[in-house]
Design brief:
The chain is of the alpha+beta class. It folds into four domains: 1-45; 48-135, Sandwich (Immunoglobulin-like), CATH 2.60.40.180; 142-237, no CATH class; 265-392, Glutaredoxin, CATH 3.40.30. It has helices spanning 3-45, 138-157, 159-170, 174-202, 222-235, 240-254, 294-298, 300-310, 326-335, 352-356, 381-392; strands at 48-55, 64-69, 78-84, 90-97, 101-106, 112-117, 122-126, 133-135, 265-268, 273-275, 283-289, 315-321, 341-344, 364-368, 374-377. Strands 10-9-13-12-11-14-15 form a seven-stranded mixed beta sheet, covered by helices on one side. The protein has a four-stranded mixed beta sheet with strand order 4-1-7-8, with helices on one face. Strands 3-2-5-6 form a four-stranded antiparallel beta sheet. The longest helix is centred in the N-terminal third of the chain and has 43 residues, at 3-45. 28% of the residues are buried.
């Protein structure tokens, strides 16, 4: 083979190699383009478009309904849009949403209604009926059903207890007050169990389940909560609802019995910053309360007695107030003779400590051992006394 031929052959081979490389690159680019096109179409096809219409008693073009995305974690809802109310009280608007979730309609008179939107829907709301009626939204109907069931359950389990506690409070019968306080705690657990059963049967695959998170019972429902969060995360991945439920479950696990109590760093009524971790080495009764909370105030005498009995035995109460008015908080401390550590950020239900400890109802309490480990949750004061005596005897 001549040198000239060899040179031409090498040149031709390189040329063919480049053609093959170019062909492969073009093929790969086409595949990537189609993939991106399909992905873009998929994302677009998942966009939610809802028609919100209905009737109200408000008849003025100057009034609007505010459409919000509900945020149970921060308790500050995000305004998405507004809907103009016509002169005849009717309203209608197409709203485009980025994700499925819990939304709300807030009327000018501050009345509001939650909506659980799982897909594109034609939702009609009538504020003329009592209660407000909704059609065209299966998730939102679940919210209505849940609320009606919650009220019936409350009437069955809780109202008789509250009525009895009020009766004996008026009579100043301390033994009866203590008896009904115990009944209140056990009845509340039964009430929450009924609500959990309702969610398990009806709301496991709907964003409407987000609304039930405030009434979960971490002490008894941990497996149910885990299952629910997995369902919602799988079906509504990366939505606010899924992320918040996942975060809440993580906080529940972090404050479960056997966990080290998360840090609390807040100011007392004198403005001094106090850390919960500074109390390490003592048994701590962590108490969540508020000046406006009637059941909390009914427990005051028992807390005072507990403190008097154990204050010199390496046991201390650490109270966290859910108040939002400093004056009311400080007056209650003095009136109820709370001489132990009492802190608050005065943010009400937006309290950072309440958020971290998943406190959605008060009074609420935890018992923490001298190593900072949570050893009991939501007990009455008799149970607390028994637990402390048992711990001190070890």
């Amino acid at each position: 083979m001549s040198r000239k031929f060899k040179s031409r052959w090498r040149h031709y081979s390189r040329y063919r190699l480049w053609l093959v490389i170019i062909f492969i690159l073009k093929t790969q680019l086409k595949i990537m383009y189609k993939s991106l096109l399909f992905l873009s179409f998929s994302v677009f096809s998942q966009a939610i478009e809802c028609t919100i219409s209905g009737t109200s008693t408000l008849k003025s073009q100057t009034k609007k309904i505010v459409f919000t995305q509900i945020n149970l974690e921060t308790r500050v809802d995000n305004v998405i849009d507004s809907i103009l109310i016509n002169e005849d009280g009717s309203f209608k608007k197409i709203v485009k949403l980025k994700e499925q979730g819990m939304y709300g309609l807030v009327l000018p008179d501050k009345n509001s209604i939650p909506l659980a939107i799982d897909k594109s829907e034609n939702i009609f709301i009538s504020f003329l009926t009592n209660p407000t009626s909704i059609s065209g939204s299966s998730g939102s109907q679940l919210l209505i059903d849940y609320e009606q069931f919650r009220k019936k359950s409350f009437e069955k389990w809780m109202k008789p207890i509250y009525d009895s506690v009020t009766k004996y409070e008026d009579l100043q019968n301390q033994s009866k007050k203590i008896f009904w306080a115990k009944k209140q705690a056990s009845s509340y657990n039964l009430h929450r169990t009924e609500l959990t059963d309702f969610v398990r049967k009806n709301m496991m695959n709907s964003t409407a389940a987000y609304n039930s998170a405030l009434r979960w019972n971490p002490n008894t429902d941990i497996n149910f909560i885990d299952s629910l969060v997995q369902n919602i995360e799988k079906k509504y991945s990366n939505t606010l609802v899924a992320n918040h439920l996942k975060d809440r479950f993580e906080r529940i696990k972090s404050t479960a019995i056997g966990s080290i109590a998360p840090e609390i760093m807040l100011s007392d009524s004198a403005g001094k910053t106090i850390k919960l971790s500074e109390k390490r080495g003592k048994y701590i009764l962590l108490d969540f309360w508020a000046s406006w909370c009637r059941p909390c105030r009914q427990m005051s005498d028992q807390l005072v007695d507990f403190n008097q009995k154990f204050k010199d035995k390496n046991v201390e109460i650490f109270s966290v107030s859910i108040d939002d008015k400093a004056e009311n908080w400080k007056k209650a401390i003095l009136k109820d003779k709370y001489t132990w550590t009492n802190v608050s950020d005065l943010l009400g239900w937006k309290s950072k400590a309440a958020f971290q400890y998943n406190v959605n109802a008060i009074p609420s309490n935890l018992l923490i051992d001298k190593n900072g480990k949570i050893i009991a949750k939501n007990f009455n004061m008799d149970e607390a006394t028994e637990l402390i005596i048992k711990e001190l005897s070890k």
